[in-house]
Design brief:
It contains 7 helices and 10 strands. The chain has about 230 residues and is of the alpha/beta class. It has one domain. The longest helix is centred in the middle third of the chain and has 17 residues. Bound molecules: iron/sulfur cluster (SF4).
């Protein structure tokens, strides 16, 4: 579903489901088990990280995203009423740190966090929190996507630095970036992106991220078919 430029959510930069946006203190945990997301999966089923649990983080779409995002009007969040979005503030960051610390103790062999089911990195300070967490919690491994521009957005630049420095721990792809590595792109209809691998979950070759593992095992760019 797409919202027009006249819709208040489009104009003000927020979710169309304000009742599904929660303060960190209002929810049990800010990180959810991947089990709650059919497209992600609970535990890695293949590759060298087999057996690792997967967790997800969902922020408020548009409120945390760059205005330049190509999906601003037709964001997936428009179709995800049930998703629990966490307000991006100090309470989120404190809760996130606490939970990453708990996960380090519970899964010292390794765990994965998918950022962000909705929303994006919203400040350089927030990127820095992830950089500090990677140092503090050796079991933490991150994968995900960002619409931040690594060329001219300071948040994108900080993300690019982090991903370049340690892709194995911080596998972050830039949406819409050209090239055959560390990017994700949308293709429409039968369009073929020679420089990217089409997400196997979309072709039916696999079930979900847990059974695919491509996003953290390879730096190759990923293409997604726009529905
Ligand atoms: S390529 Fe694999 S790991 Fe990446 S989003 Fe698609 S199913 Fe998930």
């Amino acid at each position: 579903m797409s919202v027009s430029a006249l819709h208040p959510a489009h104009r003000d930069g927020r979710s169309i489901f304000p009742s599904r946006v929660f303060e960190a203190g209002e929810v049990k945990r800010v990180l959810k088990t991947g089990h709650q997301s059919r497209k992600i999966g609970k535990v890695v089923m293949k590759g060298h990280r087999k057996g690792w649990p997967i967790f997800t983080l969902t922020l408020e779409e548009r409120a945390t995203c760059p205005r330049s995002c190509q999906a601003w009007g037709w964001c997936y969040g428009n179709n995800m009423q049930a998703a629990e979005r966490i307000v991006a503030d100090h309470a989120l960051e404190a809760g996130l740190w606490r939970e990453l610390e708990q996960l380090q103790r519970a899964h010292p062999g390794g765990y994965l966090v998918r950022v962000h089911i909705l929303g994006d990195f919203y400040s350089v300070g927030y990127v820095d929190l992830w950089a500090r967490a990677l140092k503090a919690f050796p079991a933490l491994h991150v994968f995900g996507f960002s619409a931040r521009d690594p060329g001219c957005d300071p948040i994108g630049q900080a993300l690019d630095q982090l991903a370049s420095a340690d892709w194995q721990r911080f596998a972050l792809r830039f949406s819409g970036r050209p090239g055959s590595e560390r990017a994700s792109r949308l293709v429409s209809g039968d369009e073929v992106d020679e420089a990217a691998i089409l997400c196997p979950a979309q072709t039916g070759a696999t079930d979900c991220c847990a059974t695919c593992a491509l996003c953290w095992q390879s730096a190759k760019s990923i293409a997604f078919r726009r529905h």
